[in-house]
Amino acid sequence: MKEIRFRVWDKREKKMEYLTKDTYWVISLTGELVWLDETIGEFIKVPHGVVMQYTGLKDKNGKEIYSGDIVNCFDDYTNLFVGVGTVSFGKFESSHEGGQSRRHYHQGYYIEKNGEQIWNKVAEDLDWGKVEVIGNIYETPELLQEVKE
After folding, report:
1. How far apart are alpha carbons 124 and 22 in whole angstroms?
2. Which of 41, 46, 83, 132 is within CB 3.0–4.6 Å of 72 for a Cys-Cys bond?
3. pLDDT digit string (tens) for 114-146?
4. Across residues 39-66, what is the average pLDDT?
5. Strand (E) positions, 13-63?
């Protein structure tokens, strides 16, 4: 079973926070980032936090992969460098080659580069061991600048 964990980019403090049982931020049942204001005994929405979920997968070096990570991608079969992309979650398209090509739509993690999917296999089929986390879109956005040029 996939371990469910989150990290949060604090836009105000410009730092990454990994949510644990000891952190002051929590994810509400509606998916919002909140913190408990003990002075009034209520949860307050945190507008300056961006939530990223752990994929449950690790890269080729054993580092945990989160949505928003910037990764180097290598071909499943040849191990040749494919490019730099970002880990995203959502609906993506794949096609099946079996005599005729058919489009299939999936929901899950995929890797994109400049808005285009560069790895669009179902996460379980993808050899995530051929991916290397090199940063994330908040702490090291300059890694993506090289991709856009």
Report:
1. 31
2. 132
3. 877 776 554 555 566 678 999 999 999 999 886
4. 88
5. 15-18, 25-27, 33-37, 42-45, 49-58
Same domain, 65 and 111: yes
Q: Please report the sign of the dihedral spanned by the C-alpha atoms of residue 52, residue 136, residue 133, residue 149.
A: positive
The parent domain of residue 16 ranges over 6-50
Inter-residue contact 63 to 69 (CB < 8 Å): no
AA letter at 110: Y
**Looking at the structure, do residues 34 and 63 belong to the same domain, yes or no?**
no
- Average pLDDT score over the chain: 80
**Looking at the 3D structure of the chain, how many domains does it have?**
2
Whether 64 maps to a domain, the answer reads yes
Q: Are 124 and 106 in contact (CB under 8 A)?
A: no
pTM tops 0.70:
yes
Cα distance between residue 143 and residue 106, in whole Å:
28
Residue 1 lies in a domain: no
Instruction: Give 9-33 pLDDT, tens digit per residue.
Output: 999 999 998 888 777 778 888 878 8
**In the chain, what is the straight-line distance between the N-terminal and C-terminal CA atoms, in Å?**
40
